[in-house]
Amino acid sequence: MVKKNACVFISGRGSNLKNLIMRSREYNFPINIKLIVTNNKNAKGITYAKKNSIPYIIINTKLRYYEHNLIQILNKNKISLICLAGYMKIISKNFLNIFRKRIINIHPSLLPKLKGLNTFERALKNKESKTGCTVHHVSEKLDSGRIISQKSFYINRDDNEKILKEKTQILEYRVFPEAIIKLFRNN
How confident is the model over 79-114, as pLDDT tens digits? Predict the structure, then answer.
């Protein structure tokens, strides 16, 4: 199997990154993580890059030409797929046009419900009966791209934000790799 080169964008802990790295080591998993990008020099997920000898770059999104330089680096590494895993920055229209249909994101709700931030708090406030996570293509509208895969669970009466986050992350570790497999199976 010829694996495609992938890049993972993170901003925080990197738990989905860790899971994708582990899965990418499997013979029949379709991607090989060649690069990790973060906009947070203190992102804990950088430790997974170091532990696994995966090159990483820290981008300063306040610099005017950061995106131009990033595009060159991604092209140099022949990146076929960009996975947003807790990346807390909006992707520009120009960047989306260049990597059209090659950027996916994992979101902690059942899209199209609860787009944006604070999904666990809003799920409880809205008295949702169930929630989960969604992997979707990234588009110009926030959390509105074509859905690739979703997983859900029912919310119990005694669940709080912390419990919802834990349950959602367990599902994310399954759905993100499944969505990547599905993407390459359909190509």
Answer: 999 999 999 998 999 999 999 889 999 999 999 999
Please identify which of the residues 68, 107, 136, 137 carries the catalytic annotation: 107
pLDDT of residue 186: 66
The answer on pLDDT for 1 being more than 80 is no
Domain ranges of the chain: 1-100, 105-187
Q: Does domain 105-187 have CATH number 3.30.70.1250?
A: no
Please indicate whether residue 136 is annotated as part of the active site.
no
For the cut 80, the answer to whether the pLDDT of residue 150 exceeds it is: yes
pTM to 2 decimal places = 0.95
| Residues 6 or more apart in contact with residue 6 via CB below 8 angstroms | 20, 24, 31, 32, 33, 34, 79, 80, 81, 82, 83, 180
**CATH superfamily, region 1-100:** Formyl transferase, N-terminal domain (3.40.50.170)
Distance CA 136, CA 185 (A): 16
Q: Which residues contact 58 (CB under 8 A, 6 or more apart)?
A: 38, 39, 40, 41, 46
